[in-house]
Amino acid sequence: MADGQADDGIVEGYWDIAALTAELGAARSRWRQAQQHHAEYGAEGFPSRDNLTKIMQSLCGALFPLRLGPSFVRLHNEDAYVAETLQTVLSRLYGQIRLELIYALKGEPAEAVDREAARIIAAFAHSLPTLRALLDTDVDAAFLGDPAARSVDEVLICYPSMLAIIHHRLAHRLHQLGAPLVARIMSEIAHGKTGIDIHPGANIGRSFFIDHGTGVVIGETAIVGDRVRLYQGVTLGARSFPADGKGALEKALPRHPIIEDDVVVYAGATVLGRIIVGSRSVIGGNVWLTDSVPADSNVRQAKAHYEVTSRAQVSAPHRVHAMLESTDGVGENI
């Protein structure tokens, strides 16, 4: 056996674990002092992405039991499934919210944390029927807006945009109620699965449809009206990020677009800044928009100048000559 190598193949003698541990601890201490973090998320526990992934899956099943629930759910037992699922999943979600609030309410007694977590989970639970009705309008919008959709069931089961919208509706409600970290994790779960990035702070109206969806980005302070349709690659983003006197970016300022009712934004369009896109407007593909437009506008990219060139002329001119020299007008066997 070579010197400095243990039986399990791990090389020894090239690092000092005690020194590394001490140096990493010192680095964390410097960071916390610089950021004025006397406690970090995780001092008492940390909201878990893995746990919230399972929670979101259960919530989707409770909202749409016959389509997004487990295979054993049928009409005769769906109420029992929903009741049992909600009893478990809301308790687990309460635990995740409480972990966030231990940090957010640092210095407050445990009773205050429990009371605030109970307020949030109770209000969230009572919102679920309203959220289900709102999601129904989104499913209908996708079915009516996409000629490839053969049924609302296909939309709900197959469309990645529906997964992203369900996550957003639930996360947005938690964001409103005072659990922004848990809400953000929920949104990022959908982002990772679908490629659709919707900040939970964004306000989105009824009958929202994202066609295809990959690459769509909707920023924190965006406001989207009713019956809006977006295509893949659309960005509703910020144009600039103002800083305070110390150079730090100012948070939560309105910096994303307002999209009014019945607007369509086609693939690849980028809409930036706190501008207003008026009702019933159409924003064409690949448009870069940084100014407000009135209602009923049609914003299109300038037509590119192009020439149509024969591939045969470019790649194989001898074939063109052979065709032109053909005596019967049909051309040789080329």
TrEMBL record:
The keyword Manganese does not apply. The keyword Amino-acid biosynthesis applies. Gene3D superfamilies: Hexapeptide repeat proteins (2.160.10.10), serine acetyltransferase, domain 1 (1.10.3130.10). Coiled coil: none annotated. It comes from the Bacteria. This is Serine acetyltransferase. Keywords: Acyltransferase, Amino-acid biosynthesis, Transferase. One of its GO terms (biological process) is amino acid biosynthetic process. InterPro entries: LbH_SAT, Ser_AcTrfase_N_sf, Serine_acetyltransferase, Trimer_LpxA-like_sf. One of its GO terms (molecular function) is acyltransferase activity.
